[in-house]
Amino acid sequence: MCGIAGILRTAGEQLVDRSVLVAMNQSMAHRGPDGDGIWLSPDQQFGLGHRRLSIIDLSDDAAQPMANQDGSIIVTFNGEIYNHAALRLELQAAGYQFATDHSDTEVLVHGFQAWGIDGLLSRLEGMFAFAIWEDKTKKLTIARDRVGIKPVYFTKRDGWFLFASEIKGLLCHPAVPRRVGKLALYHYLTYLTTPAPLTMFDGIYKLPASTYMEIDQAGRIISERYWDAVPGKSDVDGELSGLNGAAQEDFFIEGVRNRLSDAVEKRMMSDVPYGAFLSGGIDSSVNVALMDRFTDEPVNTFTVGFKDHEHLNELDYATKVATLFKTNHHEVLVGEDDMVGYLDDLIHYQDEPLADWVCIPLHFVSKLAAEAGVKVIQVGEGSDEQFCGYNSYMMYLKLHQHCYGPFQKFLPKPLQRVAAGAAQGIARLKPSFGLYADAVERAAENKEAFWSGAIAFWESQKKDILPAMGTELPHGAEEMIEAGLLSADILVPDSFTVANDTLTKFDRVHPGRDQLTRMIHNEFRLRLPELLLMRVDKITMAESLEARVPFLDHVLAEFTMDMPQSTKINNGVAKYILKKSVEGIIPDDVIYRKKMGFNAPMAEWLRGDFGGKAEIGIMNSPLLDQIGFDREQVAGLISDHRQGRRDTSLMVWVLYNLTAWHSHWIEV
Prior knowledge:
Layout: E1 2-9, H1 18-26, E2 35-40, E3 46-52, E4 66-67, E5 73-81, H2 84-93, H3 104-123, E6 126-134, E7 139-144, E8 153-157, E9 160-164, H4 167-170, H5 182-191, E10 204-206, E11 211-216, E12 221-225, H6 237-240, H7 245-266, E13 274-277, H8 282-293, E14 300-306, H9 315-324, E15 328-334, H10 336-350, H11 359-371, E16 376-378, H12 383-387, H13 391-410, H14 413-429, H15 434-444, H16 459-465, H17 477-482, H18 496-509, H19 515-525, H20 527-541, E17 546-548, H21 554-561, H22 565-568, H23 576-581, H24 588-591, H25 602-605, H26 609-619, H27 623-627, H28 631-642, H29 649-666
Parallel strand pairs: 13-14, 13-16, 14-15, 16-17
Antiparallel strand pairs: 1-3, 1-9, 2-3, 4-5, 5-6, 6-7, 7-11, 8-9, 8-10, 11-12
Helix pairs in contact: 2-3, 7-21, 10-11, 11-20, 14-15, 18-19, 19-20, 26-29
């Protein structure tokens, strides 16, 4: 795992300034404390930077940026290629000579030369963000992995094209201003993150998951999505033909078990110590159990709990699993003072707001692992999304089946609008009714029930706190639309357009799919890559720790996308097929205990001393007036929570992250 950066001059007479590239690199030193490298083209029109976290092939021969034999192709790479050994053999058989012992980076160099970008990406198994420069054609190619585990950001300003693993790298260049992206902010209020390719910084973009882009020396950009989480990729239809219901279930159980085992084994590839985060739930426990099968050494496991809110702790369950598999187990407890002491670093390392308070316990357990000497960690992200592990998913499925359907089918449109208006009237008198009123309004407007697995503000709630949100296109939006990176449909102050843009395209190509499959596809496009995986990347990499995600192995994901809703949920049992798949791997009382989930006591903290500090930070922020927030409404949200009238903790945390970000990154 590493940090990458680059500068391409696309217009004007200036040359790439080596010192600026060094500064971009240095800003991301935490991503690669084991080494750094700079490469400049002879004409100084282009430069690459790299920060190295040594995981595979620790020798100096594997340092980056790395070139092929004649120097015509050069790469800077962040991530891991799990099948690099097999690809190396294929390339050697084709006549390519390798200078390193077993560097996965060198496979990218020769693979690009042999197969081109499409052929290379179709063969890769791993997580990655890389940039490849072709000196002969003067073309830059940047790619992000299929599910978006690794980020890459870019901007085009004043004759420069810049990219980096973190936004702070881009801000080192003098051509890059620090301005708020207003439409990105508007969507963030709903989704807790900004939807790709937007970021909270105006004119700075992030490459969407499973996408590559090509930039020529004149700065022209084209892009291509090379993978998607959709049905029809695993070719299971032929194997299911002729099987009865019980046999089909057995087929899926065995298929999940085998693919998950393979995914964990692949991710144990390492030349440095590794471990796993362990909560004692299904996902982390299965990770540990399968890791234990593939090593003769005790697995290093790490658990976090809370000093002041023990009801959220799963320490006993984690200890039970650790004892069963004889792991080298570590625990850390976190209190409110610890959380408050970390907040400045949280805002700095996130770059843009990620309003998921799980970042806080994730930081402390990451720090624990790093202090224990571990450099690679396996995590359980992606399981609940694929197998329907959230209570909220079940709620949305019931809402879709029992409320949305009958409401839209049997109630005439004029009466739907009357019902929506009445519901909004009730909500104004009783704010706690607002969520239900919004659901009625969405149904009346024929808007999807499910937009994301994590929603802070629905549209009706944003109308109250942000009554005069205008339309202001991000810098460079037209060029991003033309390049195929940005949908013009989401450039309006209506966050339904983000979900609708994804689902409309899905329904066009895959009509008639069940609601759960549509929901999961939507999660792969937004919440997984831009919230959950970004929190893992930013928080673990701040501790120079590489996180690997076996549940999001693309072979497993393709298989689960071909499972119908009726297979993943059986008689109302969520996560049914995964639970059956891991029977015998972990104890039944771990599999079938009540789900708690990885959480933090933010609702309680916001009612205590920290809540007072957060209120001051929010209400004193100049951003409120710059964007047009209704101060009275914002103050009411905070007061309602602190006085115990209703739980608005997620909304308050979203606003706190936003205003703290603005203070740290913009008011400088």
